[in-house]
């Protein structure tokens, strides 16, 4: 993760270090204390994004040298602010909600959780469904779309979905479960700024589902998440729209492109396409 705060510029990453029989990664954080250093590093990152963008174009059959020379993706990227303010949402405890869920011993919590989607600034799990007779629904304080930050004091932020499911299952023997959540609607608002159709959006879609995303591009900054189902494009519902029509709408959209999306798992549960398996 790369962050500029005032004149402090932080770079976070992973360092591969040897381990016995397994690959191990250690966190790496570098702090630059001068504005000049921050500018140089930010410029280098921007250039790396542009190289990745050109490779993305080539991989999708766009190899016109004149077109590539004409584009300056970094300028477009600079105009695309990060939409959603996820870091502020999760870092500010004023947005957090403590929920106490009373339950019987050996009773399931009665929830379905899904991943927030690759591309999220702060990956966590989302409450996708609740059993109408389960403890989670009975407590009356949880809603579909809420992002679960912790359970019984154990942080779930950044953990794989399977690990989060294990922690929730482990609460079966308890009579009280404490959850920390960030209340969020199940539908995610996306705004992408695209000045011209010659600039690729930087994500691919199949039957309304976002299946790949250019890391660091305008789509990711605008709130696009892999694994989400597109619900609306510029106030037009695309729930029952054919794939070709969705592609055409996206390909020809310029200016501010407004979309509404939600995790595909939530969409399928809400529309009755999948049967919930409660934890």
UniProtKB/TrEMBL annotation:
Mind telling me which residue stretches traverse the membrane in this protein? none
| Keyword Repeat in record | yes
PDZ domain mapped to chain residues: 98-183, 189-265
Any idea where the PID domain is? 33-85
- Is-annotated flag, keyword Electron transport? no
Q: Which InterPro entries match?
A: APP-Binding, PDZ, PDZ_sf, PH-like_dom_sf, PTB/PI_dom
Q: Which GO terms describe its cellular component?
A: cytoplasm; dendritic spine; plasma membrane
Q: Which GO terms describe its biological process?
A: chemical synaptic transmission
Q: Which UniProt keywords apply?
A: Phosphoprotein, Repeat, Transport
One Pfam family, short name please? PDZ
Give the protein's recorded name: PDZ domain-containing protein
């Amino acid at each position: 993760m790369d962050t500029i705060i005032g004149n402090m510029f932080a770079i976070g990453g992973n360092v591969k270090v040897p381990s016995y029989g397994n690959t191990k990664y250690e966190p790496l954080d570098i702090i630059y204390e001068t504005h000049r250093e921050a500018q140089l590093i930010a410029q280098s990152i921007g250039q790396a994004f542009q190289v990745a963008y050109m490779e993305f174009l080539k991989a999708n059959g766009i190899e016109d040298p004149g077109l590539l020379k004409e584009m300056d993706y970094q300028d477009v990227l600079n105009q695309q602010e990060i939409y959603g303010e996820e870091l502020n949402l999760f870092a500010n405890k004023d947005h957090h909600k403590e929920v106490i869920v009373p339950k019987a011993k050996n009773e399931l919590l009665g929830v379905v959780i899904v991943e927030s989607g690759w591309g999220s600034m702060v990956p966590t799990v989302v409450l996708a469904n609740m059993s109408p007779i389960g403890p989670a629904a009975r407590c009356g304080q949880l809603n579909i779309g809420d992002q679960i930050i912790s359970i019984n004091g154990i942080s779930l932020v950044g953990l794989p979905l399977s690990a989060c499911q294990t922690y929730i299952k482990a609460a079966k023997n308890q009579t009280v479960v404490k959850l920390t959540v960030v209340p969020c609607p199940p539908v995610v608002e996306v705004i992408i700024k695209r000045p011209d159709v010659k600039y690729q959006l930087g994500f691919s879609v199949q039957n309304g589902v976002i299946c790949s995303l250019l890391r660091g591009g305008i789509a990711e900054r605008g709130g696009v998440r892999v694994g989400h189902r597109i619900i609306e494009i510029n106030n037009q519902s695309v729930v029952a729209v054919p794939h070709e029509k969705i592609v055409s709408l996206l390909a020809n959209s310029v200016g501010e492109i407004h979309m509404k999306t939600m995790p595909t798992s939530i969409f399928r549960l809400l529309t009755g396409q999948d049967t919930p398996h409660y934890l």
